[in-house]
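Progress note, sequence design subtask.
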């Protein structure tokens, strides 16, 4: 089931890029990010209440709160950079560079989370990096 959700994520991320590039025309990128964030906030909390997940709030540990807050800050920084890049650059170049996050995530997962980094991972990272450079240059 994770694969279906991962494909959904890729599809919606692609739509996000195209819709954002169209919608950001003539709009300050920071303002556009705030509007997008407000929509995501309403949608996320709507789903929380729809499925009754709000009951789990008291069970969240301090450690989880800390890392979820840090993740939120990283997401905000990412979105601000992404929208600014989309505003001043071409989507066909911005998006591949943004997707280098896959390579960075695999390296960080190896360093921070001690997840395995196999020959297959190394080759995949090299191919993603080469493909990104090929598309952008």
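Output:
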């Amino acid at each position: 089931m994770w694969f279906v959700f991962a494909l959904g994520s890729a599809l919606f991320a692609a739509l996000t890029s195209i819709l954002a590039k169209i919608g950001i025309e003539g709009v300050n990128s920071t303002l556009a990010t705030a509007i997008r964030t407000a929509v995501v906030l309403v949608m996320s909390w709507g789903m929380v209440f729809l499925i009754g997940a709000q009951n789990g709030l008291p069970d969240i540990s301090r450690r989880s709160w800390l890392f979820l807050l840090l993740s939120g800050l990283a997401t905000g920084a990412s979105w601000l950079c992404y929208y600014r890049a989309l505003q001043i650059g071409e989507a066909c170049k911005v998006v591949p560079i943004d997707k280098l996050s896959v390579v960075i995530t695999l390296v960080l997962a190896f360093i921070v989370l001690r997840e395995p980094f196999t020959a297959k991972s190394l080759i995949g990272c090299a191919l993603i990096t080469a493909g990104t450079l090929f598309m952008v240059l």
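The radius of gyration is 17 Å. Work on this subtask will continue into the next period as scheduled.
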